Amino acid sequence: MKINKMVENKYEEDCLRPALLKCYNAFKCLEKLTVESSFYDNISNLDNFLIEYRSITFAIQKSLKSKNDPIYLKYRDLYLKSESSKWLLDNRNIVDHEHPFNLGKRLTINVYTQTSAEEIYKKEFDIENDQPYKSILEELKVVFLSFKKWEVYFSCTFQFIDNNEKYEIYPLIKDGVTSIKDFFKAIYDDIKALYIVTGK
User: Fold this and answer.
1) Is the model more confident about 166 or about 34?
2) What is the DSSP string of the chain?
3) What digits encode the pLDDT tens for the residues 38-73?
4) Which residues contact 168 (CB under 8 A, 6 or more apart)?
């Protein structure tokens, strides 16, 4: 089969590198978001993640020399139009132009028997009412001792939440990260295919 060598390839070989660096910066900010960190650190890291995440698409537009590039538009509409992507965009605008993200934490403890499960502890924390782990452990110790059993089976769930609306934010962030990775791969594959076809 003869390949048409006259197909135009306007893309530079490393054109996605600036956007990939933005992506790396965003993921590094997210990596620092931990249970152990203070609220100030976590809010700063989340704000920076949202700003860097949104800058990825600006960097791609710049590298492709147009916000109307057909490859960019095709995959933007396919991968970056979800509810999670909208949430990330809306909150990026808020933290960049209005105020830091109103982050909260929720800790839930469930105790299990052979026949039932019971939620015995649920508490939400924010920057105003954060609580040291030591004092939380002391509270839980009293609760567990009240069962008067040698063994207590339990699960512990820790969530980052939007302190205004009280919903967990991790699923939205996780979906957004998956979307941007799929978005990058699709654009990369198309540009790589052009290099194969054109011989460049």
Assistant:
1) 166
2) ----TT------TTTTHHHHHHHHHHHHHHHT--SSS-HHHHHHHHHHHHHHHHHHHHHHHHHTT-TT-HHHHHHHHHHS-SHHHHHHHHHHHHHHHT----EEEEEEEEEE-SS-EEEEEEEEE-SSS---HHHHHHHHHHHHHTT--S--EEEEEEEEEETTT--B-HHHHHHHHHHHHHHHHHHHHHHHHHHHHHT-
3) 889 999 999 999 999 989 999 989 888 888 989 899
4) 106, 159, 160, 161
Tokens of 100: 């830091």
Q: How many CB atoms lie within 10 A of CB 18?
A: 16
> What does the pLDDT look like over 72-120, one tens digit per residue?
999 999 999 999 999 999 999 999 999 999 999 999 989 888 788 889 8
Asked if pLDDT for residue 197 goes beyond 60, the answer is no
What distance, in Å, lies between the first and last C-alpha atoms of the chain? 18
| Cα 10 from Cα 144, distance rounded (Å) | 66
